Amino acid sequence: MSKNYASYSYWLETSGDDLTPRPALDGTIDVDVAILGAGYSGLWTAYYLLEREPSLNVAILEKEIAGFGASGRNGGGLGNRFPVGLRRTAQLFGREGAVSLQQAINTVVDEISGVAEMEGIDMDFVRGGYMRLARSPYQVEVLQREQRTLEAFGFGEDSTVLDANEVAERVSVAGAVAGHFNHNSAKIHPAKLARGLARAVERRGATIYEQTDVIDYTTGAYPALHTARGHARAKTIVLAGESYLSRFPQLRRKVMPVYSLITLTEPLSPCDWQEIGWEAREGLSSATNMVKYLTHTSDGRILFGGRGAPYHFGSRIKDEYDRHDPTQRMLQDDVREWFPMLKDVKFTHSWGGPLGWPRDYVPTVSYDPREGLAAAYGYTGTGVGPTNLFGRILADLITRTDSEISRLPFINRDGRKWEPEPFRFLGVRFVQHGFERLDRKAEETGVAPNGKSLVERLTRH
Ligand SMILES: Cc1cc2nc3c(=O)[nH]c(=O)nc-3n(C[C@H](O)[C@H](O)[C@H](O)COP(=O)(O)OP(=O)(O)OC[C@H]3O[C@@H](n4cnc5c(N)ncnc54)[C@H](O)[C@@H]3O)c2cc1C
Asked: Regarding the domain with residue range 5-74+190-255+360-407, which homologous superfamily does it belong to in the CATH classification?
């Protein structure tokens, strides 16, 4: 019997699309490109492959349904942010490399909204910007530092630091003392994008096989995705399974699943909205180590998400981990603390899902023509925009289209590996608690973390 896919997130529930699974792969097929995963990464790769070369034979093999993973569950924040900051990318790839990467990421909001418009995907797109909020004086310095970094690299004009009054004109959040506002960001309905994109790639000729679990893959002379009921043999296979790729022994140390959880309020009354403001519907987030993120949904609710759910030994992923009562309760307390006027608000939905976390925060986009192997994964919590860029990069690499983005410096980089268990479990749990402690201490002392604590040194990026 099929799972109740609508129960995995409010977004899947309200996507307006028929979630009945497409037929599974049954037998063996020969295609040009076989893609594992029908999330944004897999779908964007298929989309741009078929745009570059419409005659390509492209198959997507999806374990559940299109948009089942993070792409159908996320916070809906679409931004021009790479998981690693500009200073760190400059250390890794030089100043020019960092600048070219940021320039490439700066295109994603326009690109995604342009394709959605062209393909008739109504994804509740609002280009309201994005604001990181300081709710404690020590966080003001964090925001100012971020702005100084952007300016030092020539990207200052997209963003600005707002004082408490300017923030209050936008949104009424208790204790907000400053904000870092970025214009080049938007909010979307994540599942409408994923489901709409799936239909768009089908219109362009791709075949999506759902409820088709890839249990192994081969490369070299015979690139193929293998399932219990058949094989997709291809010239190139693409691994676009994000956190779930950690189940493959070859990738176990390259990407780790970390759960991010979300709680959602009922639709608020016009009176509440009048008090809160938030008319531009910009994405909001905290300026803490344990990031909290907020979206003002199109039907007048507040989505409040954050990390904090525990890491599970052996990088296990299970449906039951999508909900974790203590974390959901904490998020609901946060809603009441950020918006005291909502002390009696009801919460209608809670869900979550795994993100793919690389050891050094640098996502992977790679292509090895000799092995017939391409991959895109490891976006941490900021993949909605970058998946589009990575799809374009892979399409250019696979079709041998020379472009600026296909020469970006982090392509084919072999990043640092995760520690094997049990060290990984101990380390990740230590870091999770450490970040909470750092935030609490900074709150109490009013002094920003100085970057010298063990947990900060362990996670420097
Ligand atoms: C709760 C949450 C909130 C988030 N909020 C934001 C946000 O506000 N902004 C932002 O930018 N990013 C956010 N993210 C991250 C963002 O959603 C992801 O980076 C992005 O969706 C990754 O897309 P993907 O296609 O690479 O992976 P996924 O969407 O996870 O897709 C992978 C697909 O592969 C399939 N698959 C896996 N293994 C197999 C297999 N063996 N065989 C066949 N199929 C397989 C899965 O079923 C899944 O459909 C959030 C993520 C989560 C979980």
From this structure: FAD/NAD(P)-binding domain (3.50.50.60)
